[in-house]
Amino acid sequence: MVILGLLLIALAVIAILGGVFLVDGGNVEYFGMDVPPVTLFVVGALSVVFIGLGAKLMASGTKRSIQARREHKQLEKLAEQRQADADPGREA
Description:
Shape: rod-shaped
Distance between the termini: 38 Å
Number of domains: 1
Radius of gyration: 25 Å
Number of strands: 2
Helix content: over 70%
Structural class: mainly alpha
């Protein structure tokens, strides 16, 4: 999920930078195509949506990863306790 989030953000950044640096003064030429100004506005709006969605995906992926790490650590601790309880002569 984190990788998908980063990919969406990168795609949006490329679209925004293309709109900022590739548009000529009066002529709207976006990545080699003549487009109406409304299309450029829609590309900008979609870029904002993609950035928000990418950030949300990254946050949820990170949260899920942290939760899995905590659960794994807790399971390891329980397994060590169980092993120590099963073999009382062994030092932990």
